Amino acid sequence: MSLPPLVEPTAELSIDEVRRYSRHLIIPDVRVEGQRRLKAARVLCVGAGGLGSPALMYLAAAGVGTLGIVEFDTVDESNLQRQIIHGQSDIGRPKAESAAASIREINPHVEVVLHPVALDRENVREIFAQYDLIVDGTDNFATRYLVNDAAVLLGKPYVWGSIYRFDGQASVFWAEHGPCYRCLYPEPPPPGMVPSCAEGGVLGVLCASIGSIQVTEAIKLLTGIGEPLVGSLMVYDALEMSYRKIRVRKDPACDLCGPDATQTDLLADYDDFCGALSAEAADATATATITAVELREWRDAGKDFLLIDVREPAEYDIVRIPGSQLVPKGDIVSGAALAGLPQDRQLVLHCKSGVRSAEALAALHAAGFRDAVHVHGGVLAWVRDVDPSLPTY
Amino acid sequence: MSVTVTIPTILRPVTGGEKTVHGVGSTLAGLLADLDGRHPGLSGRLLDAEGALHRFVNVYVNDEDVRFTGQLDTPVGDGDTVTILPAVAGG
C-alpha cells in the first residue's frame, strides 16, 4: 500500500542546500520536490537514547527541516556504547542539549526544538500537535502506550521501533490507514516479566539497525515514496542476520482504534496501566524493605542473614555485594530454587535496582518465607551509598 | 515431520537456550501442551490463569496472527512454522 506524501513541498531550497542534498535531488523518486517536502517537515523524536541517536542524526542529515526532541535525562557513561549522538565530553550534560549540538554540527539548516520534559498525559497533546510525524525512541511500555494513544487521538503517524539484546522490531502505526500499537499488543506485559535493556542488555549497533529502519520509514511517509510499514511488522534477528516481515492486522476489537472503541481519551495513569510493580510485589515490599545503608549496618552488627542476589550470572560477574549468593529471580518465581533456601535464616534479596527483587520477594512471602526482605535500589544503591569504588552498569 | 516453533530470546531459559524446538499437535493448544511436557513452564509464559493466550505475546502460525485465526484452536500440522513474539520495549 502506498500513501500520498504527508507534507506539502512548501519550503524553498537555498543554493547551499541544493549542493548539500545533491545526492538526494538526483534520485528520480525524490527530486527537488521531495527534498522540499523534507525541509517543510516537522518530526518529533521521543527520546534521544539508543534508537533516538541514529534516528535524529539521519533525520538531520536527510534535511528534515524541524526536529523536536523530547528528553529529560542526562548523558551517562553507560549510554555511550550505543547512543552515538552523545560523546565523552557530554557525560553529565542534558541529553536534549547534547543531541541538539550534534545535530547542528551535522546540518545547520535544521531547526531543533527541545522539549526537556518527561512526556505525560498533560503535555503530550500540545507537543505532538506541533509535528507531522512521531518517531518513538523510548525505553518503557508506559511511554510507548502513551505515545501510541496520543498519536491515534491526534491522527499522527507513529514510527515505532523496539530492541532487546540481538533482536529488533519496527513498524509504522497509523490508525487512519492501518493498525495501531494496541492492535499489535493490546496490553503490556506484567512488570518483571519482560526485562528492559538496562536489565537484559542490548548490542549497541542494534540501535542503528532499527533506528535506520525508522528513519527510512519516516522519509518515505513524509515524501510519499514507496510502501510504508503500515500493517507490517519488521522483525530483525542480528545473530541470524535475518529480516522477517509479518503482517499486522487492524484489530476490529481494538479498544482505541476499532469501530467500537471504548477508549476515547488518554488513560488517567500510564504507569498504573503498565504497573511499575505488580500488586503482589508492592504489598510485599511495603513492610519488608531495607536500604543499602541498613544492609551494611546489619552486617556490621553481626546480624545473621543470607544475602541473595536475584540477578543473572552475567550481571553478577560485573559487580556484586560481597558475601552474596546468586539465585536468579526466575528460579525463585518458578519455585525451582525454593528447596535450596534455608527456612531458619533471615533472607535479604537484592537485584540491580529493586524491581526484580520485589517480584522475587512476593514469591518468597507467598512460599512461606515471611521474614524475607529486599534492598531498596539494589546493587546500584549499594554502590552509590556504601561502596562507590565498585562499578555500575 | 512436526511443527517448528521459534522461541524468542526472553523465553529461551525455558527451552534450555534452544532457539528452535519441535512439537506435534493438531491445534495450537495441543502443540503447546506437547511442548510444555518437554519444556516445563513454556505454557505458563504464554497463557493466563484462564488458559487463554496473554495479550502481550503474539503467536503466528506461518506468519498469520492466531488472534485472528481461532486463537488456541488454530489448526497446525506437519511443516508449519510457529513464531512466538513477545512485546519488548527497549530503546
Verbal overview:
Chain A: Residues 301-391 form the Rhodanese domain. Chain A: This is Adenylyltransferase/sulfurtransferase MoeZ. Chain A: GO terms for molecular function: nucleotidyltransferase activity. The complex is a heterodimer of chains A (393) and B (91). Chain A has 393 residues and is an alpha/beta fold. Chain A has helices at residues 15-20, 22-25, 31-40, 52-62, 95-106, 124-128, 141-154, 181-184, 197-200, 206-223, 270-274, 279-286, 292-300, 313-318, 329-333, 355-366, 378-385, and strands at 42-46, 66-70, 111-115, 133-136, 158-164, 167-173, 232-237, 242-247, 289-290, 305-309, 325-326, 346-350, 373-375. In chain A, a hairpin with a 2-residue loop joins β5 and β6 (167-173). In chain A, α12 (279-286) packs across α16. The longest helix of chain A has 18 residues, at 206-223. The radius of gyration of chain A is 24 Å and the shape is elongated. The relative contact order of chain A is 0.11. The model of chain A has no long low-confidence stretch (mean pLDDT 94). Chain B has helices spanning 28-38, 42-46; strands spanning 3-6, 20-23, 57-61, 64-65, 81-86. A five-stranded mixed sheet of chain B has the order 2-1-5-3-4, covered by helices on one side. Chain B contains two helices and five strands; from the N terminus they run ββααβββ. By secondary structure, chain B is an alpha+beta fold. Chain A binds chain B through residues 47, 49-52, 136-141, 144, 161-167, 169, 184-189, 193-197, 200, 202, 233, 235, 244, 246-249, 251, 330, 334, and chain B through 8-10, 13, 41, 45, 54-58, 60, 63-65, 67-68, 83, 85-91.
